[in-house]
Amino acid sequence: MRKFFYAASALALGACLWTGPVLADEDDVTAWRLFVTDHEQPVVNVIDALDGDKLDTFTIKGPASLYRTESGQTVFAVQGSASVVSVISTGIAFQDHGDHGDIDVDDPELLDTTLDGSKPAHFVERQGNVAQWFDGEDKARLFTEKAALEGKPQVREVSVVAPHHGVAVPFDKHAVVTIPNPEDASKRPIGARLVDLDGKQIGEDVACPGLHGSAGSGSLYALACDTGLLLISQDGDVPEIRHLPYSDKLPEGSSSTLIGGKGLQYFVGNYGPDRIVLVDPSEQDAFRLVQLPTRRVHFAADPIRSKFVYVITEDGQLHQVDVLRGEIAHSLKLTEPYSMDGHWSDPRPRITVAADKVFVTDPLNSKIHIVDANSFEKAGTITVEGKPFNIVAVGGTGKAHEGEGHEHAGGDHAHEEGHKHD
Q1: Local structure of residue 418 (DSSP, 8 states)
Q2: How far is CA 330 from the centre of its chain?
Q3: What are phi and psi of 415, to 5 degrees?
């Protein structure tokens, strides 16, 4: 068994980890919410993950990809076709007090804060710092989550040379931005560059041919290249970038989509249509392949049971992958087949985890499937009008003081209901 670096902070644990029923103390409150987009309609549905009830529906400008922040206080709805990014206050906030975390539970709210721009795409947030990328612009925008919540984002713009499909990674006083292909900016970026908040380059460019795919895990942020991963870290004032080359033991290929582990420091990437690669940056032999039965549709890391990743394949099976053992631990037939043939943006399932449940959207059947993460058995469904598509979860357990709101906080009874809403 490999040793993985435990990277979650106490605050991150307080904000997202919950492994069982609400504790007996009357001031312990558990709240989990799902934010779900529709594949065709410009809406975001907010659902109580503990009892399946719809809490609200927000009308936005276009179909959206959703990104939650580390704190869980905000969800950003990136609407590429509508050229706008909307900001949602989740209504769930945690305050770290060392030996415990306080929870505030309020109504979710679609804020007035928006970002308008040409072809908004990759969104990255780290430690409260946000970078929003626009494929149609020659600059990336940097601001803080706190300012966005307050409706006063003081946006800093840094040059990315030319419009291209890239990404920016924010730090306190710097950002890492991708470098467009100088011969054809419509092709994948060729490397990464460190800049300060005035856009001034720091150090030398780092090559990363075919750059596509990025994710964070603990203190590291990774960019996927044709040749391996670029790992970005910051131990001092200035971030550092190092190249982790693919192992010679791997077959020909590369990753173009990454996710990062929570609690354990690892990355998972696609490696061909029917394999994934597990990446442990702390190991000399950092890469291991896992063969899937059919082509991968979507994958997500479990932030609570840190050693597990969930992968749904086009045959409708949900797989629980043990990243420590490097193998599929369990598989469960969940949906009808969703072929990966056709357009890349066709409606297909997406996965998230809330408390002790795994939630999988089933857009062609207007459902969200629920799987018990501990027994890995079906635990019910939630019916959602339309084609539920992208999904993120926010929540946890904390201390609530007298007089503070905790509507929709849920409890043991929510699990006894079985979440059946067909």
Answers
A1: T
A2: 23
A3: -80, -30
Residue 26, Ramachandran bin (φ over 0: left; ψ between -120 and 50: alpha; else beta): alpha
In the numeric block, which tokens belong to residue 80?
Answer: 């590429």
* Angstrom distance (rounded) from CA 316 to CA 76: 28
Which residue intervals of 141-205 are DSSP H helices? 145-149
Contacts of 267 (CB under 8 A, 6+ apart): 215, 217, 222, 229, 258, 259, 260, 261, 278, 279, 281
Closest CA to 410 of 350, 338, 357, 339: 357
Task: State the Cα–Cα distance between residues 47 and 268, nearest whole angstrom.
Answer: 28
What is residue 364's DSSP assignment?
A: G
Classify residue 406 by its DSSP letter. Answer: B
Residues near 48 by beta carbon (within 8 Å), at least 6 away in sequence: 32, 33, 34, 54, 55, 408, 410, 414
Tokens of 130: 């946000």
**Among candidates 320, 233, 238, which has minimal Cα distance to 282?**
233
| Tens digits of residue pLDDT in 204-260 | 999 999 999 999 999 999 999 999 999 999 989 999 999 999 999 999 999 999 999
Q: What are phi and psi of 51, to 5 degrees?
A: -130, 0
Q: What is the pTM of this model?
A: 0.89
Chain position carrying tokens 């086009």:
314
CA distance 95 to 73: 11
CATH annotation of 10-416: 2.130.10.10
Domain range annotation of the chain: 10-416
